[in-house]
Automatic annotation (TrEMBL):
Recorded GO MF terms: electron transfer activity; flavin adenine dinucleotide binding
Cofactor(s) this protein requires: FAD
Function of the protein: The electron transfer flavoprotein serves as a specific electron acceptor for other dehydrogenases. It transfers the electrons to the main respiratory chain via ETF-ubiquinone oxidoreductase (ETF dehydrogenase).
Binding site residues for FAD: 204, 229-230, 243-247, 260-267, 281
ATP-binding among keywords: no
Domain Electron transfer flavoprotein alpha/beta-subunit N-terminal: 4-184
PROSITE patterns: ETF_ALPHA (PS00696)
Cofactor note: Binds 1 FAD per dimer.
Pfam family, one: ETF_alpha
Protein name: Electron transfer flavoprotein subunit alpha
Membership in a protein family: Belongs to the ETF alpha-subunit/FixB family.
Alphabetical UniProt keywords: Electron transport, FAD, Flavoprotein, Transport
Length: 311
C-alpha cells in the first residue's frame, strides 16, 4: 500500500489551497496520506491541513530556519522525512517547482512533473509541448516517486477531516550559502488569481495600462481575480504576476472571461481546464473562439462598459 507525503504550501500563516488539490491527487494514487508543515510556527497551518478530508496525519517541523520558504533549506528536511514514504508530492506552483526538484535530487530520483491524471500508483499522465500533447510516464516502482501536481487538473479536497497532528524533529544539515533577504509580492484586495472562482483577463488589444482599468472595474463587479496575456504583460500594461498561460499561471476557475486576447497556444494551455470560457474580441477569426463556450465579436471598449452596466 502506498504511503504519501505532501509538502504543505503556506504563506503568512495561511495554508494555500494547492495543498488540498495535492490531496485529491494523492487520493487517486491511493494509500495513507500525510501532510508535512515546515515553518517557524506551524501550528495554525497544521490545524488547517488537519481539516482536509482524506489526510490521516499532519507532521509539523518547527524550526526558525523555516520562517521563509527557501527550497535549499526545506529540501534536506523533506528528504529526511521521506524515508518510508512511497510518494512525496508538492504543488506545481512557484513554491513546488522550486522545492521538489531539490528533494528529488537529494533522493537520487527523477521527478515526475505536472501530474494531471493517475493511471496507477506509478503511472501518470502529464502535459508536454506547452500542453499540445499528453504523455504517459511510468516511475520505477523500486524508488520513491517525487512529483509535482498540476493543481488546475485537480479539485480541492473538501474539509471535514480530523487528522492527528504530530511534531517531528528532523536532523538535517541545512545550507548556509542560501539565505532569505526579502519578499516582494503584489498586493491586491481582489481574489488570488490561482484560487479565484472567477477571473477576468485582458490582452494587448487594451492598448495601454490606463485602458486596463476597465478590466479591473469589470472584475470588481464580478468579484473576480484579474489576469492578463503575456503580450499585455510584455507591453507593460500590468505586472507579471498577473500573467496567465504556459509561462505564467495555469488556472482553472469556474468562469474565465478573456477580453482582447487572441488566444495564443501558450495562453490557451493556461486556461483549458476552466469551467466556462467567455471571449470578447473584434477579430472573429481569433483562436480564442475555438475553445470559448461563449464568444462576442465586437469592440471591447463598447462591449465591456455595456456588460458592466447590465451587471
Amino acid at each position: 500500500m502506498s504511503k504519501i507525503l505532501i509538502v504543505a504550501e503556506h504563506l503568512g500563516g495561511q495554508l494555500n489551497s494547492s495543498t488540498a488539490r495535492c490531496v485529491s491527487c494523492a487520493a487517486a494514487i491511493g494509500g495513507e496520506i500525510h501532510v508535512v508543515v515546515l515553518s517557524d510556527a506551524p501550528d495554525a497551518v497544521a490545524a488547517e491541513a488537519a481539516k482536509i478530508a482524506g489526510v490521516a496525519k499532519v507532521i509539523t517541523v518547527a524550526n526558525a530556519a523555516n520562517a521563509n520558504p527557501i527550497a535549499q533549506v526545506l529540501a534536506p528536511q523533506v528528504a529526511k522525512l521521506a524515508a518510508g514514504y512511497s510518494h512525496v508530492l508538492g504543488a506545481s506552483t512557484t513554491f513546488g517547482k522550486d522545492l521538489m526538484p531539490c528533494v528529488a535530487a537529494l533522493l537520487g530520483v527523477a521527478q515526475v512533473s505536472d501530474i494531471m491524471a493517475v493511471e496507477s500508483s506509478h503511472v501518470f499522465k502529464r502535459p508536454i509541448y506547452a500542453g499540445n500533447a499528453i504523455i504517459t510516464v511510468q516511475a520505477p516502482s523500486s524508488m520513491a516517486v517525487v512529483g509535482t501536481v498540476r493543481t488546475a487538473s485537480w479539485p480541492a479536497a473538501a474539509n471535514g477531516g480530523s487528522a492527528a497532528v504530530e511534531a517531528a524533529s528532523v536532523d538535517a544539515a541545512l545550507p548556509t550559502h542560501t539565505r532569505f533577504v526579502s519578499l516582494q509580492q503584489g498586493k491586491s484586495d481582489r481574489p488570488d488569481l490561482q484560487s479565484a472562482g472567477k477571473v477576468v483577463s485582458g490582452g494587448r488589444a487594451l492598448g495601454s495600462a490606463d485602458a486596463f482599468k476597465i478590466i479591473y472595474s469589470l472584475a470588481d463587479k464580478l468579484g473576480a481575480g484579474v489576469g492578463a496575456s503575456r503580450a499585455a504583460v510584455d507591453a507593460g500594461y500590468v505586472p507579471n504576476e498577473l500573467q496567465v498561460g504556459q509561462t505564467g499561471k495555469i488556472i482553472a476557475p469556474e468562469l474565465y472571461v478573456a477580453i482582447g486576447i487572441s488566444g495564443a497556444i501558450q495562453h490557451l494551455t493556461g486556461i483549458k481546464d476552466a469551467g466556462t470560457i467567455v471571449a470578447i474580441n473584434k477579430d472573429a477569426e481569433a483562436p480564442i473562439f475555438e475553445i470559448a463556450d461563449f464568444g462576442l465579436v465586437g469592440d471591447l471598449f463598447q462591449i465591456v462598459p455595456e456588460l458592466e452596466k447590465s451587471l
